[in-house]
Design brief:
Blueprint lengths: L1 H20 L10 H28 L2 H22 L6 H24 L3 H32 L16 H11 L16 H20 L3 H18 L4 H29 L15 H14 L9 H4 L5 H5 L9 H9 L1 H27 L4 H19 L9 H18 L11 H43 L23
Helix pairs in contact: 1-5, 1-16, 2-4, 2-16, 2-17, 3-4, 3-14, 4-16, 4-17, 5-7, 5-16, 6-8, 6-15, 6-16, 7-9, 8-15, 10-13, 13-14, 15-16
Amino acid sequence: MGKLCNPVFFVTIFTIFLSIFFANFLFMPLGDYTTQRIMLTHGLSIFVVFSLAFLAWRHGCKLFMGLWPAFMISVIFSLSAIVFNKNAFGVTETGMYAAFFVGFVLLGFLSKSLNKTHDWVLLFSYLAALMTAFYGAVSVMIYLFLLSDGVAVFSDHLPWGFVNIRYWSHIATWLLPILPLAALVGPLKDKHLWRFLVAFGSSLMWWIVFLSAARGSILGITFGVMLAAVLIGRSATPWLFMFLRYLVLGLLIWVLLSVVIPSFIADDMVLRSIKTTTSGRMPLFTEAWYMSLENFPFGMGPQSWLTHEILSKEYLRSPKFGHPHNMYLMWAAEYGWLLIGALLVFAVQSMRLFWRQRSEVRAANSSEPALLLAAFTASVCAALFHAGVSAVFIAPGSMLIGFFVLGLFWALIAPVVVVFKQAQPKRRLVFVGLLVVIVGTLCTYWLDDVWGYHTAMRDDLDFYQKNVPIETFPRFWSHGNFPRHPDQMP
């Protein structure tokens, strides 16, 4: 299995990057957002079933000792769907989160078990650098076309392929701390052309961050990079210097392409400014807070943000969105503070494992393990920070990238699981067979609900566009305001 894993991993990551960065150039009959969601849900179900089977066969029950915090999170998500079974399509999102949290931990253990962590980290960082370089090149081409047409507001057209420009910034948050790795580790690190390609893609991604005034990304990445640099220490210096070099290059490109050149061509040049306000998020945060206390500590149920009676006057008067722009408050509102407690337990376990790995890499003679740990720690911390002000764990593109970043981070910090002794193969076969049947049945039921939700959403869209005076905002599907409050339903 080990020999097969690298090509499968390569094709999977390449396909995901292609579907995210170049969605507009691909044939997606269901649309890019829906296609990415289907890739996420079906990919998660297949991966969870097969990886659980393989790891359970190879490591037995010892595997589950390291999985229990992630399983606890998944169980709470699943119980919420059972308790609030009257919520329409309540299984859909709960199943996604249940599979997501168990799945990325399984990915980490699978990588560790197959001794593929270094290979997969290298493949991921190289593909990320390659695809961002191509994306950057196409972005510059489109920029030149827009410039020749006299278009002043470039941020309305760049980037493309995302339902919302902020969903692009989620990808930047995950990838920008990792991209410097591609120039520092692996067989291509001394190739000048490759290092130029990495710098080209990274700096252009920073250009688009500044162009779109993605302050969630800027704040999240700043937090993640500073924290990783402080925690890892001197061993992370080459990664930090390379990161800062790309940041400065991106800033210079932004000055040249978005300020200097347009000032000579367009008289009505408009630049996005980074706002210092909350952009209307406080009423959303307040509403989610009140919801979390309404049925403490169990929350109001899956997708209740879309269907509940509004609790605060501020939110009643404010624009409506498919989520409160804060993942933690949304989870507390819909799934309860019990879930937040489980997430904190998982965070404590992760910090404990990270601290042990940090001690090992700082004591090692080789600097490469420190660079890998610093980059992925910065990426994860940046995304967790960004999730406090945006839908990082709702947008399918972000979740697809985040699944692999979180899984590889877990692989870097997870302990080695002892291989199960070869005795009693019949007993193991029965155990693995039961596990596959149970988990496979649950995944089949969940995917059936996903497709049922898609059909109902599509059937509702015509009524919504004609009768509901609110724009369609994405959540699970791109028409994410379904189901909604009964007085807006047919």
